[in-house]
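assembly run, all chains below
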Amino acid sequence: MLNTETIIQIHHLKFKRGQREIFRDMNIEIPKGKITAILGPSGSGKTTLLKMIGGQLSPEAGKVVVKGNDLALLTRSELFELRKKMGMLFQSGALFSDMSVFENVAFPLKVNTNLGEGLIRDIVLMKLQAVGLRGACELMPSELSGGMARRVALARAIALDPEIVMYDEPFAGQDPIGMGVLVELIKKLNKSLGHTSVIISHDIQETLSIADHICIMSEGVVIAQGSADEIKESTLENVQQFINGYPDGPVPFHYPSEDIMQQLMTEN
Amino acid sequence: MFDMLAALGRQGISYIASLGKATLVVIHALFVWPQPIKNMPLLLKQLYSVGVKSLLIITVSGLFIGMVLGLQGYTILVDFGSEQSVGQMVALSLVRELAPVVTALLFAGRAGSALTAEIGLMKATEQLASLEMIGVDPLRRVVAPRLWAGFISMPILSMIFAAVGIYGGALVSVDWLGVYSGSFWSVMQASVDFYDDVLNGIIKALVFGLVVTWIAVYQGLECIPTSEGIAQSTTRTVVYSSLMILALDFVLTALMFGDI
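ok done. output:
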């Protein structure tokens, strides 16, 4: 673990979805002011983990502490207050479809602050300038490409200058240019605004290139953590399979099933 | 045998849990400190969406149901020589029963299904989760204005339905079938009581409005966020609302007019 102050602590987290165990005994500490990447194969519970940090899901056991607050002990209104200090970039962008780009970015400022219209306008334009979409402020979400929508969502996520910004699969479905733009943006914003970034992703190379601290999740626990170099040099078989993209290994290619010959020989 | 009992128990527990969750939704959405200035534009938008946009179907249905009542009433009453009472029959049928019930059924089909689909789609596209992460409670921002809009619109729509229906009844029985206009209106005026008939009809409409919008928003919030899930929830809204309207109508009628 990095020798620095932590802003999010996750201790002995357990969570099930139906019969499936998502987290067995998850422990993660996220350092303040750094970019932390949480990597893991699809279905390993990365988005679920973000939802738990945001207090949208509650664990069955263990605790999630954000900025010194145990989320399980907060009232509904205290939780909503805490969320004002967090920003989240959703995988789909999650822009409000009945609002323009400008209104989407202005929304958190309008509902959570008492700033005047003029000041809100200036902040929104600055945030849109930061993501390169000031010129698109009059467009509706339906008129944006996937990459543009994600950048608008990023501008909205940082509108209130949050202390923690969470990115849910920010690079998924992006073309190389869009991906490069987002990588640079996340890095630049983290440096200039000084917030803590938590990135959930399975795009290894892009994430390793910007993350200060990396955790790799598998089967409900963290199997490796450290800097990008430490992760690359890990001797663990499942870490190597994941970062090098081997189709078969500790994470099997085939979904558990009976022997194929036996199944083929069985009459219906 | 035990498996069947266990399945029945599971279903019962899940049903009670859903009922509890739905009650919490209403309590969180409605019984919070009101912010009328901040929330008024949201309420007005919903009043337009669920109320004004339902006007066409409500007025057209009201007109035709009133016309049918006038025609049916006349053909039955004329045999007894009491066709002058057709106005009373049309008005009482409409204000006591048909206006609140038919309006609520149409409201569930037009506005209720739209509410479920809208909220379900907001859930599927993570807009509700996004609101939560911005620090805005979706129950206050999304659910409360819709519940209030349904609660306010339904009695108004029901009154419009009754008024247009009575006009439809007059059109057929007076203008077409030749019932004396003075008798039609005076018998109606003498027999319809404001408190017993009109007010009870409005109370029914208020109850139906709350129940239909409650079912609609809850189904939207709880839907499985896929196209199939949204379709199922929309269907459930119409089915559950219709059943609740008819069942509650019996209960309310028994309480209001059954002398119990």
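Chain B touches chain A through 13 residues (CB under 8 Å).

The mean pLDDT of chain B is 91.

not gonna interpret more than that til we talk
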